[in-house]
Write a structure and sequence with these properties.
446 residues; alpha/beta; Urease, subunit C, domain 1; TIM Barrel; 5-stranded parallel sheet; 15 helices; 18 strands; 32% helix; globular
């Protein structure tokens, strides 16, 4: 076993300590302050008992372990125990490679790079990600089987787009497209799939569901990274969007769409879409519609450095700054109309920016209190994940510290409600990282 673990560690550029040992029957956190993922205040002097992968008991009174021989006791010392963080807009396969590398590099290499990033994501305290586009099924399986350390992944599979839409990275020599002809590189790898009719949309959605998608992602409007997709365009027709919604609902799950503009958002809502990704260019009438229909908004507070992935003077860079300029208006509207708002980062093409994942969460305190921000990245995001219904790959409650919930927990050296900046330095301030009842980091052990 040691040799196998060491070999895997070498392959994925991590130390054997990055892999969780078999968990004890019980783990007891003693004397912790609890942020439960919902409340604005901490419960002090609490004890939390984890049995297997589930939180069994939370109490101010000392908890008995019933003489169980395999018990790990963690002396909290008044530190804060909180749910693992959830990033609701992540692309596990697209974080580190450049756009050119995604189109040309060996697929095996790209998967190894993604495996290394997955481990780092978990070590930043993000125990769950909702992957909204990319071929992450293999990575998810490797994580679930314990081959690679990483977060839980709720996969969408390939981004579904139209010809010339956001997600269509084909070259001019790959056109015209002929139905039934050999697939492009992006389709062969499962990064994105092109669908230009309701029938094609149904096929592409069903393919992702067959592979294990927990939700479906379409691009309903123009995007930043795609060179031939202006921001103002609407891509799918309403019948095409409705075909995706019907196919997903037949499987008991939902469709989320990339959409910035009012028309692309409104058309998606008319088709029955349950979640909007981004929404940065929406107007007040659109925000009201989102509120009236109970639609989710999964949004991001993009840093200007996100544009560094694109060359100076490029259309992509200009589009990025157009989107960034809409952030304050869109989040202000989301707060005004009490939209069901999920936190995500949408980090692409930058290992360095990914290391600041916690910092991007902290940016939301421009509009929300620290407690509201923490709740968004834990309990609220957990509610969004539950929309997958029976397609949820991890049945159980995520994003909260409560009895019966899955044991994804962080022990923070300090109080993140009063000092949320602690999450900007996870290496220093996250003393214990537990996912599914297994401890992946414990700085309290000498």
């Amino acid at each position: 076993m040691f040799r196998r673990t060491t070999l895997l560690a070498a392959l994925f550029c991590v130390t054997p300590a990055a892999y969780a040992a078999e968990p004890p029957a019980l783990t007891l956190f003693e004397n912790v302050r609890v942020f439960d993922g919902k409340s604005e205040r901490l419960e002090e002097g609490m004890n939390v008992l984890v049995r297997g992968n589930t939180i069994e008991k939370i109490s101010k009174d000392p908890l008995s372990t019933d003489g169980t021989p395999s018990v790990q006791v963690i002396a909290g010392g008044g530190r804060t125990l909180m749910p693992g963080l959830i990033d609701a807009h992540w692309h596990a396969m697209l974080v580190r490679p450049t756009p050119a590398a995604l189109l040309t590099d060996d697929v095996g290499y790209l998967n190894l790079v993604a495996g290394a990033e997955a481990r780092d994501t978990l070590m930043r305290g993000f125990t769950t990600v909702r992957d909204v586009g990319g071929p992450s099924f293999g990575l998810k399986r490797a994580i679930d089987e314990g081959i690679v350390a990483g977060p839980r992944i709720f996969p969408s599979g390939a981004i579904i787009s139209v010809t010339s839409g956001h997600g269509d990275f084909r070259q001019a020599n790959e056109l015209p497209r002929v139905v039934g002809a050999p697939q492009s590189r992006q389709e062969q790898t499962g990064a994105s799939m092109i669908a230009d009719s309701p029938d094609e949309v149904r096929v592409r959605v069903r393919e992702q569901l067959l592979k294990g998608a927990s939700q479906i992602k379409l691009t309903a409007g123009g995007g930043v990274a795609s060179p031939n997709s202006p921001l103002d365009v609407s891509t799918f027709t309403e019948p095409e969007l409705r075909a995706a919604v019907e196919a997903a609902e037949n499987w008991g799950t939902y469709v989320t769409v990339h959409a910035y503009t009012p028309i692309s958002i409104q058309r998606a809502i008319s088709a029955g879409v349950k979640c909007i990704e981004h929404g940065h260019l929406m107007d007040e009438a659109t925000a009201k519609l989102i509120a009236e229909r109970g639609i989710w908004l999964s949004t991001q507070a993009f840093p200007d450095e996100m544009a560094d992935a694109f060359p100076p003077g490029s259309q992509e860079r200009a589009k990025a700054f157009t989107v960034f300029a809409g952030t304050d208006t869109s989040i202000t509207l989301a707060k005004k109309y009490k939209l069901k708002t999920a936190f995500g980062t949408d980090i692409l093409f930058s290992k360095g920016l990914a290391q600041r994942q916690g910092e991007l969460l902290v940016k939301f305190t421009r509009w929300y209190t620290p407690a509201e921000t923490l709740a968004m990245a834990t309990g609220t995001n957990g509610e969004l994940l539950a929309l997958s219904g029976k397609r949820n790959p991890y049945p159980g409650k995520l994003g909260v510290v409560e009895e019966g919930a899955l044991a994804d927990l962080l022990l923070v050296d300090g109080d993140p409600v009063s000092n949320i900046e602690l999450l900007q330095d996870p290496a220093k301030n996250l003393l214990v990282i537990m996912k599914d009842g297994k401890i992946y980091k414990n700085s309290l052990v000498p």
